[in-house]
Amino acid sequence: MSKGTVVVGLSGGVDSSVAAMLLKQQGWKVIGLFMKNWEDDDTEEYCSSRQDLVDVMSITDCIGIDVEVVNFSAEYRDRVFAEFLSEYKAGRTPNPDVLCNSEIKFKAFLDHAMQMGADKIATGHYAGVREFNGEYQLLKAEDGTKDQSYFLYRLNQAQLSKTLFPLADLYKREVRKMAEAAGLHVATKKDSTGICFIGERPFKDFLSNYLPPNKGEIRRLDDGKVMGEHDGLMYHTLGQRKGLHIGGIKEKGRAGGGDHDAWFVVSKDMEKNVLYVVQGHDHPALLKDKLVAEQLSWISPNPPRPHWVYTAKPRYRTSDQACEIERIDGESCKINFAEAQWALTPGQSVVLYESRVCLGGGVIR
Predict the structure, then answer these.
(1) Looking at 100, 323, 333, 358, which residue is catalytic?
(2) 96 close to 86: Cβ distance less than 8 angstroms
(3) Which of 20, 304, 340, 364 fits as disulfide partner to 8, beta carbons 3.0 to 4.6 Å?
(4) Which of the two residues, 224 and 38, has the higher pLDDT score?
(5) Is 100 a catalytic residue?
(6) CATH 2.40.30.10 is right for the domain spanning 286-364
(7) Distance CA 312, CA 330 (A)
(8) What mean pLDDT do residues 319-333 have?
(9) Would you tell me which CATH number, out of the four given (3.40.920.10, 3.40.50.2000, 3.40.50.620, 3.90.1150.10), belongs to the domain 5-188?
């Protein structure tokens, strides 16, 4: 007996392929959906969407499910890419994966799937969802090295109630073994990395097509000395080390760095178009023990409580950090960390957890 109809977002990778296969094995009527989200410069050189679609067709044929192709390029440009450019222009560093999940995969895709008559949608994300005390909770995946709950913190109760994450309790190695055993040719396919619409091309080259260069000074934070020239503040992010072209400076006794220590971006003056740098990874100016987050999004109708101890991720590739919320004022909150955090970056998301439960988060101001 069928459990109902589930539409699975298929990317052409191993994770979504195994998700679809598992759901069919569990008794769902599974329909695959391939989303085309970018077409501005969709060339073989940088974009893999053509090959991904070929892989999806092979996968669905092997599993024995139908597939539909839908073009969300207009929605992606309006809801994700426009915000991406706006944030970079303002000197911040946005996370397009967070936007894509909230605006495309769990909004445009969810709406489309419901129109197809689906009971649920599913993706190959490494995360979990459960109903607890009348509320839906977003959970960390069993495989902590692949957990993607950070990118899903903007999901709400309505979206979670319609979502399945079949890989919640699986490790990546198990997923690849399942794909291999089922004869799916994507079992060894390399995971996609980076920002989907940029592909393998240099980030600066891509961004310069939309935000023209605007040269300015690179100054040393400690004393204001001019160290070099930048091509535009939007090409740099806090904590950045590579691409500054100011190496070879040797001075003794500077705070936070030795004779040969690397230089790091520490701040931007948007009005004066100045990029400030410090020498040494552990320079005090790169370490902060508090932040303010805006554009708050809480998964539960009951937001986290001030002065309770939680953990937070101020960036994706970091371990959970002990913290407390000092205050919540409508659309913003102040978070204090037990230990100083390195290069807290405006525009990035800070995501809060209570054990395995993702509570939501906001954008660092």
Answers:
(1) 100
(2) no
(3) 20
(4) 224
(5) yes
(6) yes
(7) 20
(8) 95
(9) 3.40.50.620
